[in-house]
Amino acid sequence: MSETSPISLTRFLIEEQRAHQHLNADLRLLIEVVARACKSISIAVGKGDLGGVLGDAGTGNVQGEAQKKLDVLSNEILLEANAWGGHLAGCASEEMDDPHPIPDAYPKGNFLLLFDPLDGSSNIDVNISVGTIFSVLKCPDGVTNPSAEHFLQPGTMQVAAGYTVYGPSTLLVLTLGHGTHVFTLDRELGSFTLTRRNVQIPPDTREFAINMSNQRHWEAPMQGYVEELLAGKTGPRGKDFNMRWVASMVADVHRILTRGGIFIYPWDKKDAGKPGKLRLMYEANPMAFIVEQAGGAATTGRDRIMEVGPTALHQRVPVFLGSRNEVAYVTEFHRNHDRKA
Ligand SMILES: O=P(O)(O)OC[C@H]1O[C@](O)(COP(=O)(O)O)[C@@H](O)[C@@H]1O
Ligand SMILES: [Mg+2]
Ligand SMILES: [Mg+2]
Protein backbone atom coordinates (compact mmCIF):
# COMPACT_ATOMS: atom_id res chain seq x y z
CA MET A 1 0.00 0.00 0.00
CA SER A 2 1.43 3.39 -0.91
CA GLU A 3 2.26 5.98 1.76
CA THR A 4 -0.28 8.30 0.16
CA SER A 5 -3.25 5.89 0.28
CA PRO A 6 -6.26 7.39 2.04
CA ILE A 7 -6.34 6.52 5.75
CA SER A 8 -9.73 5.25 6.87
CA LEU A 9 -11.00 5.84 10.40
CA THR A 10 -10.55 2.10 11.06
CA ARG A 11 -6.89 2.15 10.01
CA PHE A 12 -6.28 5.36 11.97
CA LEU A 13 -7.72 3.80 15.13
CA ILE A 14 -5.69 0.60 14.76
CA GLU A 15 -2.50 2.62 14.28
CA GLU A 16 -3.32 4.81 17.29
CA GLN A 17 -3.91 1.68 19.36
CA ARG A 18 -0.47 0.34 18.37
CA ALA A 19 1.17 3.67 19.21
CA HIS A 20 -0.57 4.32 22.55
CA GLN A 21 -0.98 1.59 25.14
CA HIS A 22 -4.06 3.02 26.84
CA LEU A 23 -6.24 2.71 23.73
CA ASN A 24 -7.89 -0.67 23.79
CA ALA A 25 -10.14 -2.59 21.42
CA ASP A 26 -13.30 -1.53 23.29
CA LEU A 27 -12.49 2.16 22.86
CA ARG A 28 -11.79 1.55 19.18
CA LEU A 29 -15.13 -0.21 18.81
CA LEU A 30 -16.88 2.61 20.67
CA ILE A 31 -15.51 5.25 18.28
CA GLU A 32 -16.41 3.14 15.25
CA VAL A 33 -19.95 2.61 16.56
CA VAL A 34 -20.43 6.33 17.26
CA ALA A 35 -19.08 7.15 13.78
CA ARG A 36 -21.51 4.66 12.22
CA ALA A 37 -24.43 6.17 14.16
CA CYS A 38 -23.34 9.63 12.97
CA LYS A 39 -23.42 8.38 9.38
CA SER A 40 -27.07 7.41 9.90
CA ILE A 41 -27.81 10.83 11.40
CA SER A 42 -26.02 12.46 8.46
CA ILE A 43 -28.26 10.55 6.03
CA ALA A 44 -31.39 11.61 7.94
CA VAL A 45 -30.23 15.26 8.04
CA GLY A 46 -29.46 15.10 4.31
CA LYS A 47 -32.95 13.87 3.42
CA GLY A 48 -34.55 16.84 5.17
CA ASP A 49 -38.16 17.31 4.21
CA LEU A 50 -38.06 14.27 1.90
CA GLY A 51 -37.41 12.08 4.94
CA GLY A 52 -40.10 13.81 7.02
CA VAL A 53 -37.52 14.64 9.70
CA LEU A 54 -37.94 18.43 9.93
CA GLY A 55 -40.07 20.24 12.50
CA ASP A 56 -41.00 19.85 16.14
CA ALA A 57 -41.38 16.52 17.90
CA GLY A 58 -44.07 18.01 20.14
CA THR A 59 -42.12 16.97 23.26
CA GLY A 60 -39.76 18.74 25.68
CA ASN A 61 -36.43 17.63 27.16
CA VAL A 62 -35.10 17.78 30.70
CA GLN A 63 -33.73 21.28 30.00
CA GLY A 64 -37.28 22.52 29.31
CA GLU A 65 -36.45 22.97 25.60
CA ALA A 66 -38.85 21.98 22.81
CA GLN A 67 -37.44 18.95 21.01
CA LYS A 68 -37.15 18.73 17.24
CA LYS A 69 -37.89 15.46 15.45
CA LEU A 70 -34.19 15.21 14.62
CA ASP A 71 -33.19 15.68 18.30
CA VAL A 72 -35.30 12.64 19.19
CA LEU A 73 -34.29 10.57 16.15
CA SER A 74 -30.56 11.24 16.61
CA ASN A 75 -30.79 10.32 20.27
CA GLU A 76 -32.50 7.02 19.37
CA ILE A 77 -29.91 6.24 16.68
CA LEU A 78 -27.02 6.74 19.13
CA LEU A 79 -28.70 4.70 21.88
CA GLU A 80 -29.58 1.81 19.58
CA ALA A 81 -26.12 1.67 17.96
CA ASN A 82 -24.37 1.59 21.33
CA ALA A 83 -26.62 -0.89 23.15
CA TRP A 84 -25.23 -4.26 22.09
CA GLY A 85 -21.48 -3.90 21.39
CA GLY A 86 -20.34 -4.71 24.93
CA HIS A 87 -18.12 -1.61 25.06
CA LEU A 88 -20.27 0.61 27.29
CA ALA A 89 -21.36 0.62 30.91
CA GLY A 90 -23.89 3.39 30.24
CA CYS A 91 -24.85 6.49 28.24
CA ALA A 92 -26.06 9.95 29.15
CA SER A 93 -27.64 12.39 26.74
CA GLU A 94 -28.61 16.04 26.69
CA GLU A 95 -32.07 14.81 25.65
CA MET A 96 -32.68 12.40 28.57
CA ASP A 97 -33.33 13.16 32.24
CA ASP A 98 -31.27 10.24 33.57
CA PRO A 99 -28.44 8.01 32.37
CA HIS A 100 -29.52 5.27 30.01
CA PRO A 101 -28.56 1.77 31.19
CA ILE A 102 -27.26 -0.91 28.84
CA PRO A 103 -30.05 -3.51 28.51
CA ASP A 104 -29.43 -6.64 30.65
CA ALA A 105 -29.55 -8.82 27.53
CA TYR A 106 -26.18 -7.43 26.40
CA PRO A 107 -22.66 -7.57 27.84
CA LYS A 108 -21.30 -4.46 29.54
CA GLY A 109 -18.02 -2.64 29.02
CA ASN A 110 -15.98 -0.08 30.93
CA PHE A 111 -16.78 3.16 29.13
CA LEU A 112 -19.35 5.88 29.66
CA LEU A 113 -20.60 7.76 26.62
CA LEU A 114 -22.15 11.22 26.87
CA PHE A 115 -23.64 13.06 23.91
CA ASP A 116 -25.49 16.01 22.52
CA PRO A 117 -27.17 14.02 19.73
CA LEU A 118 -28.10 17.01 17.62
CA ASP A 119 -26.36 20.31 18.24
CA GLY A 120 -27.70 23.51 16.72
CA SER A 121 -31.34 22.42 16.76
CA SER A 122 -32.62 25.88 15.83
CA ASN A 123 -30.84 25.49 12.47
CA ILE A 124 -32.41 22.16 11.45
CA ASP A 125 -35.44 23.60 9.69
CA VAL A 126 -33.46 26.30 7.85
CA ASN A 127 -30.90 23.98 6.24
CA ILE A 128 -27.86 25.28 8.12
CA SER A 129 -25.11 23.01 9.48
CA VAL A 130 -25.87 21.01 12.61
CA GLY A 131 -23.86 18.27 14.34
CA THR A 132 -23.36 15.73 17.11
CA ILE A 133 -20.97 16.14 20.09
CA PHE A 134 -19.70 13.27 22.25
CA SER A 135 -17.45 12.62 25.22
CA VAL A 136 -16.04 9.35 26.58
CA LEU A 137 -15.18 8.66 30.22
CA LYS A 138 -14.12 5.52 32.06
CA CYS A 139 -16.70 3.93 34.33
CA PRO A 140 -15.36 3.80 37.90
CA ASP A 141 -13.98 0.35 38.79
CA GLY A 142 -16.51 -2.12 40.14
CA VAL A 143 -19.56 -0.15 38.93
CA THR A 144 -21.78 -2.17 36.59
CA ASN A 145 -24.93 -0.04 36.65
CA PRO A 146 -23.69 3.55 36.59
CA SER A 147 -25.94 6.28 37.95
CA ALA A 148 -25.60 10.04 37.42
CA GLU A 149 -22.89 10.42 40.10
CA HIS A 150 -20.55 8.10 38.16
CA PHE A 151 -20.68 10.41 35.15
CA LEU A 152 -19.76 13.48 37.23
CA GLN A 153 -16.05 13.48 36.38
CA PRO A 154 -14.09 16.58 35.35
CA GLY A 155 -13.22 17.03 31.67
CA THR A 156 -9.60 16.13 32.39
CA MET A 157 -10.80 12.52 32.83
CA GLN A 158 -12.09 12.25 29.25
CA VAL A 159 -10.40 9.52 27.23
CA ALA A 160 -11.89 10.65 23.92
CA ALA A 161 -14.13 13.36 22.53
CA GLY A 162 -15.42 14.30 19.13
CA TYR A 163 -18.01 16.09 17.07
CA THR A 164 -19.50 15.72 13.65
CA VAL A 165 -20.67 18.55 11.42
CA TYR A 166 -23.47 17.79 8.98
CA GLY A 167 -22.70 20.55 6.50
CA PRO A 168 -21.80 20.74 2.81
CA SER A 169 -19.66 17.73 3.70
CA THR A 170 -19.99 15.55 6.79
CA LEU A 171 -16.92 15.78 9.03
CA LEU A 172 -15.85 13.88 12.11
CA VAL A 173 -13.39 15.65 14.41
CA LEU A 174 -11.79 13.40 16.98
CA THR A 175 -9.31 13.44 19.82
CA LEU A 176 -8.07 10.44 21.79
CA GLY A 177 -5.73 12.68 23.78
CA HIS A 178 -2.97 12.73 21.13
CA GLY A 179 -3.88 15.66 18.90
CA THR A 180 -7.08 16.55 17.10
CA HIS A 181 -7.81 15.01 13.72
CA VAL A 182 -10.41 15.60 11.00
CA PHE A 183 -12.11 12.89 8.93
CA THR A 184 -14.38 13.53 5.95
CA LEU A 185 -17.24 11.19 5.11
CA ASP A 186 -16.76 9.72 1.66
CA ARG A 187 -20.41 9.40 0.72
CA GLU A 188 -19.75 6.91 -2.10
CA LEU A 189 -17.65 4.58 0.08
CA GLY A 190 -19.70 5.26 3.21
CA SER A 191 -16.56 5.62 5.32
CA PHE A 192 -14.71 8.39 7.13
CA THR A 193 -11.26 9.21 5.70
CA LEU A 194 -8.53 11.14 7.51
CA THR A 195 -8.24 14.54 5.84
CA ARG A 196 -6.34 16.65 8.43
CA ARG A 197 -3.98 15.23 11.02
CA ASN A 198 -2.96 17.19 14.11
CA VAL A 199 -4.89 20.37 13.44
CA GLN A 200 -3.42 23.47 15.10
CA ILE A 201 -5.58 26.49 15.93
CA PRO A 202 -3.72 29.76 15.20
CA PRO A 203 -2.88 31.28 18.62
CA ASP A 204 -3.98 34.81 17.65
CA THR A 205 -7.14 35.95 15.93
CA ARG A 206 -9.19 38.84 14.60
CA GLU A 207 -12.52 36.99 14.65
CA PHE A 208 -15.03 36.45 17.45
CA ALA A 209 -18.27 34.49 17.71
CA ILE A 210 -20.98 35.54 20.14
CA ASN A 211 -24.74 36.11 20.14
CA MET A 212 -24.66 39.93 20.28
CA SER A 213 -28.42 40.14 20.90
CA ASN A 214 -27.69 39.26 24.54
CA GLN A 215 -25.29 42.19 25.02
CA ARG A 216 -27.52 44.15 27.38
CA HIS A 217 -27.66 41.13 29.74
CA TRP A 218 -23.87 40.60 30.02
CA GLU A 219 -21.84 41.37 33.13
CA ALA A 220 -19.32 44.26 33.20
CA PRO A 221 -16.13 42.45 32.06
CA MET A 222 -17.93 41.02 29.01
CA GLN A 223 -19.22 44.47 28.11
CA GLY A 224 -15.72 45.90 28.47
CA TYR A 225 -14.01 43.15 26.47
CA VAL A 226 -16.42 43.28 23.50
CA GLU A 227 -16.30 47.10 23.52
CA GLU A 228 -12.52 46.79 22.97
CA LEU A 229 -13.03 44.38 20.05
CA LEU A 230 -15.62 46.63 18.41
CA ALA A 231 -13.34 49.67 18.75
CA GLY A 232 -11.09 48.08 16.12
CA LYS A 233 -7.82 49.57 14.89
CA THR A 234 -8.17 52.82 16.79
CA GLY A 235 -9.10 51.09 20.07
CA PRO A 236 -6.85 49.49 22.71
CA ARG A 237 -6.46 46.23 20.71
CA GLY A 238 -5.11 48.10 17.67
CA LYS A 239 -6.77 45.81 15.11
CA ASP A 240 -10.15 45.33 13.47
CA PHE A 241 -12.16 42.27 14.50
CA ASN A 242 -14.69 40.42 12.34
CA MET A 243 -17.74 38.66 13.80
CA ARG A 244 -19.46 35.35 12.90
CA TRP A 245 -22.27 33.48 14.65
CA VAL A 246 -23.81 30.36 13.10
CA ALA A 247 -25.68 29.40 16.31
CA SER A 248 -24.59 25.78 15.88
CA MET A 249 -21.69 25.30 18.28
CA VAL A 250 -20.23 22.55 16.07
CA ALA A 251 -20.07 24.86 13.06
CA ASP A 252 -18.70 27.81 15.03
CA VAL A 253 -16.06 25.63 16.70
CA HIS A 254 -15.15 24.03 13.39
CA ARG A 255 -14.51 27.43 11.82
CA ILE A 256 -12.25 28.27 14.77
CA LEU A 257 -10.42 24.95 14.43
CA THR A 258 -9.84 25.76 10.78
CA ARG A 259 -8.82 29.42 10.83
CA GLY A 260 -8.75 30.55 14.48
CA GLY A 261 -11.13 32.75 16.44
CA ILE A 262 -12.83 32.89 19.80
CA PHE A 263 -16.24 31.41 20.63
CA ILE A 264 -18.05 32.84 23.63
CA TYR A 265 -21.33 31.93 25.31
CA PRO A 266 -21.05 33.90 28.57
CA TRP A 267 -23.22 33.86 31.65
CA ASP A 268 -25.87 36.55 31.35
CA LYS A 269 -28.61 38.14 33.42
CA LYS A 270 -31.41 37.15 31.04
CA ASP A 271 -31.87 34.01 33.09
CA ALA A 272 -29.58 34.85 36.02
CA GLY A 273 -30.31 31.58 37.83
CA LYS A 274 -28.65 29.59 35.05
CA PRO A 275 -24.85 29.56 35.19
CA GLY A 276 -24.64 29.66 31.36
CA LYS A 277 -26.45 28.25 28.34
CA LEU A 278 -24.18 25.44 27.17
CA ARG A 279 -23.95 22.10 28.92
CA LEU A 280 -20.72 21.15 30.68
CA MET A 281 -20.91 17.38 30.12
CA TYR A 282 -22.27 17.29 26.55
CA GLU A 283 -20.88 20.44 24.95
CA ALA A 284 -18.26 22.36 26.96
CA ASN A 285 -16.03 19.48 28.10
CA PRO A 286 -15.75 17.61 24.79
CA MET A 287 -15.21 20.85 22.86
CA ALA A 288 -12.61 22.00 25.42
CA PHE A 289 -10.71 18.70 25.04
CA ILE A 290 -10.75 18.94 21.23
CA VAL A 291 -9.69 22.59 21.25
CA GLU A 292 -6.88 22.08 23.79
CA GLN A 293 -5.58 19.12 21.80
CA ALA A 294 -5.42 21.48 18.81
CA GLY A 295 -3.28 23.99 20.74
CA GLY A 296 -6.20 26.21 21.74
CA ALA A 297 -7.64 27.03 25.16
CA ALA A 298 -11.05 26.79 26.85
CA THR A 299 -12.20 28.56 30.03
CA THR A 300 -15.36 29.62 31.79
CA GLY A 301 -14.03 33.19 31.55
CA ARG A 302 -12.29 32.54 34.87
CA ASP A 303 -11.18 28.89 35.10
CA ARG A 304 -10.14 26.08 32.79
CA ILE A 305 -13.33 24.29 31.68
CA MET A 306 -11.83 20.81 31.95
CA GLU A 307 -11.05 21.38 35.65
CA VAL A 308 -14.61 22.28 36.63
CA GLY A 309 -15.91 19.70 39.12
CA PRO A 310 -19.36 18.71 37.83
CA THR A 311 -22.20 18.63 40.33
CA ALA A 312 -25.09 17.69 38.01
CA LEU A 313 -25.45 15.81 34.76
CA HIS A 314 -27.16 18.69 32.96
CA GLN A 315 -25.04 21.45 34.52
CA ARG A 316 -24.46 24.57 32.43
CA VAL A 317 -21.30 26.69 32.22
CA PRO A 318 -20.11 29.85 30.49
CA VAL A 319 -17.83 28.93 27.56
CA PHE A 320 -14.84 30.85 26.12
CA LEU A 321 -12.76 28.81 23.69
CA GLY A 322 -10.52 29.02 20.66
CA SER A 323 -7.22 30.78 19.85
CA ARG A 324 -5.18 30.48 23.02
CA ASN A 325 -3.85 34.06 23.26
CA GLU A 326 -7.32 35.53 22.82
CA VAL A 327 -8.84 33.16 25.40
CA ALA A 328 -6.00 34.07 27.80
CA TYR A 329 -6.70 37.78 27.18
CA VAL A 330 -10.44 37.61 27.92
CA THR A 331 -9.88 35.32 30.92
CA GLU A 332 -7.35 37.78 32.38
CA PHE A 333 -9.86 40.58 31.65
CA HIS A 334 -12.43 38.83 33.86
CA ARG A 335 -9.93 38.00 36.60
CA ASN A 336 -8.70 41.62 36.69
CA HIS A 337 -12.27 42.80 37.03
CA ASP A 338 -12.86 40.34 39.90
CA ARG A 339 -9.68 41.46 41.69
CA LYS A 340 -10.72 45.11 41.48
CA ALA A 341 -14.27 44.29 42.63
O1 LIG B 1 -29.65 30.56 19.92
P1 LIG B 1 -28.46 31.06 20.66
O2 LIG B 1 -28.79 31.66 21.99
O3 LIG B 1 -27.61 31.95 19.82
O4 LIG B 1 -27.61 29.76 21.06
C1 LIG B 1 -26.91 29.04 20.13
C2 LIG B 1 -26.19 27.95 20.83
O5 LIG B 1 -27.16 27.02 21.33
C3 LIG B 1 -26.89 25.73 20.82
O6 LIG B 1 -27.70 25.52 19.69
C4 LIG B 1 -27.24 24.75 21.90
O7 LIG B 1 -27.22 23.43 21.46
P2 LIG B 1 -28.54 22.51 21.21
O8 LIG B 1 -29.07 22.80 19.84
O9 LIG B 1 -27.92 21.16 21.35
O10 LIG B 1 -29.52 22.82 22.32
C5 LIG B 1 -25.42 25.77 20.40
O11 LIG B 1 -25.15 24.86 19.37
C6 LIG B 1 -25.26 27.20 19.92
O12 LIG B 1 -23.94 27.67 20.05
MG1 LIG C 1 -25.84 21.59 21.67
MG1 LIG D 1 -28.73 19.27 21.19
Question: Could you give a quick summary of the protein structure above?
Answer:
It contains eight helices and 17 strands.
Secondary-structure map:
Blueprint: H1 9-19, H2 25-47, E1 56-60, E2 66-68, H3 69-83, E3 88-93, E4 100-101, E5 111-119, E6 130-138, H4 148-151, E7 160-166, E8 170-175, E9 180-186, E10 191-196, E11 207-209, H5 220-231, E12 242-243, H6 249-259, E13 262-265, E14 278-279, H7 280-293, E15 297-299, E16 316-317, E17 319-322, H8 324-340
Parallel strand pairs: 3-5, 11-12, 11-13
Antiparallel strand pairs: 1-2, 3-4, 5-6, 6-7, 7-8, 8-9, 9-10, 13-17, 14-16, 15-17
Bound molecules: 1,6-di-O-phosphono-beta-D-fructofuranose and magnesium ion (2 copies).
The site of one magnesium ion has 6 residues, from strand 5.
Family: Belongs to the FBPase class 1 family.
Catalytic activity: beta-D-fructose 1,6-bisphosphate + H2O = beta-D-fructose 6-phosphate + phosphate
InterPro entries: FBPase_C_dom, FBPase_class-1, FBPase_N, FBPtase
